[in-house]
Fold this protein.
Amino acid sequence: MRLLIIILFSLNIFSQNNEFERLQFVKGKDTLNYRLLKPIDFDSSKKYPLHLFLHGVGERGNDNERQLIHGAKVFLKQENREKYKSWVLFPQCPSNDWWGNENRYPKLKGTTIKLVIELMEQMISGNNVDSNRVYVSGLSMGGMGTFEILSQRPDMFAAATPICGSGDLNKVKNYAKKLPIWIFHGSLDKVVLPQESLNIAKKIIEEGGNPRLTLYENVGHDSWNDAFEEKDFLSWIHSKSK
């Protein structure tokens, strides 16, 4: 009976994940796998927010599936889909690349984040995206990617929620005053030290920004679970507009 429940639960999650359409963005010789959730009750005459989500290092690959392991179910909850109608984009980073800045892992290509930016530009230029309500979230490596994409295209986004990430302090001035940022981290994180988020928040303030910072007591690296449980995780970001 227990095995049957586990199988049924797994099938239900798989079925829900299929709400995200499997797609590819091709640019020259490069291909970016991604999954896209369409706004519920989609109306082609309307414009909707676009929410980019960047996964962690463990979800890299080319199956166009693993990137949905953490975070997807937040956006798939019926109440969230109905209240925060938006496009939700989950790209997948290949195993030989990295979302974050090239200084941390210089041997990796660092080109996939550029493909993400080009895909985002293409989507924003379409008829059904509200360019004033474009958001980015990410966890761990994706938190690093969140700070990196903000440093490259700060004018693209209306708000950001990086989780247990880090970033290049020399690039903070590029986005510090451009948009609201809510940073999350576990105070016992040994994978990406909480000091990384503290340093970023401090630098944002020094550069004239006004970040929101949440540290979770007795929480390690998987602070995304706590962040996703915040009652205003989605309401906060969806309240922001350029």
Observations:
- Strands lie at 20-27, 30-37, 48-54, 87-92, 129-139, 159-163, 182-186, 212-216.
- Residues 2-238 form a domain with the Rossmann fold fold (CATH 3.40.50.1820).
